[in-house]
Amino acid sequence: MASEARPMDPALFSRAELLGSESDAAGDGFEAIPEPQPLSSHGPAVTVAVCNQKGGVGKTTSTINLAAALAEYGRRVLVVDLDPQGALSAGLGVPHHELDLTVYNLLIDSSVATDEVLVRTRVDGVDLIPANIDLSAAEIQLVNEVGREQALNRALYPIADRYDFILIDCQPSLGLLTVNALTCSDNVVIPMECEYFALRGLALLTDTIDKVRDRLNPRLHLGGILITMFDRRTIHARDVLSRVVEVFGDRVFDTVITRTVRFPETTVAGEPITSWAPKSAGAQAYRALAREIIARGR
Q1: What value does the mean pLDDT take over residues 136-164?
Q2: How confident is the model over 64-86, as pLDDT tens digits?
Q3: DSSP result, the chain
Q4: Domains and CATH numbers, the chain
């Protein structure tokens, strides 16, 4: 188990503190939002697509650790691996290459029940619908199907009342699988690295969200932009963060995830940082994000 993070660890700064904003209330840090109250019952789920067409921005890491943090606060969580690489499944210690049934079967074969595919993870309160390389064929097989954008929605609908949150880890594209995720979601969380080309890609992604909302899913909205892999030592990162906040305002989460070697270690371990290094800055950051999402009702 990791030792406790240093008090001045840069990962423990909020967005306002990183930007040096004086307009935000004092104490706008990770302890500003209290721990949520326990639930007397569960469901129906808020479905969240964790999405960005740019790879390597922390989508899978954020999905795993947000799910684990939500579960720590008594929320029942289902995570859905919608990337043929199966990184989410591997990151939760599930041997996805050995599975006979995955999300691919749910999308392609209506006779497969969702319960047949569900996997209990090592994380108490977190279930998984896994993926493997078979999923790479799904878009081609679905393209001529009637209601192809609703395939995932049909699979998740029967079990949505069991969970408080369903988190969908999207592949780094805006193809049919991602459209399926957006079509069945209540909101979108966009993990974003603070660099110029990532900022440019936000416009395309938000345009896709608008089109899906207009044509397929009127309840869909932008739940928030999550800044990941932030390096507060660089002027460029702070400039990009400032620009994102200027454009998107309070839709940028106060929680900022900074770079740390702990995250690659947890991937190898096959467990979230909240259990691998529970006192680390990264674990505290994802708990803060979970509190923020619960408090905002997102």
Answers
A1: 96
A2: 999 999 999 999 999 999 999 99
A3: -PPPPPTT-GGG--HHHHHT-SSSPTT-STTSSPPPPPPSS--SPEEEEE--SSSSSSHHHHHHHHHHHHHHTT--EEEEEE-TT-HHHHHTT--GGG-S--HHHHHH-TTS-HHHH-EE-SSTTEEEE---GGGGGHHHHHTTSTTGGGHHHHHHGGGGGG-SEEEEEE-SS-SHHHHHHHHT-SEEEEEEESSHHHHHHHHHHHHHHHHHHHHT-TT-EEEEEEEEEE-TT-HHHHHHHHHHHHHHGGGEEEEEEEP-THHHHHHHHTS-HHHHSTTSHHHHHHHHHHHHHHHHT-
A4: 10-20+40-296 (3.40.50.300)
The pTM score is 0.89
Tokens found for residue 26: 């004092």
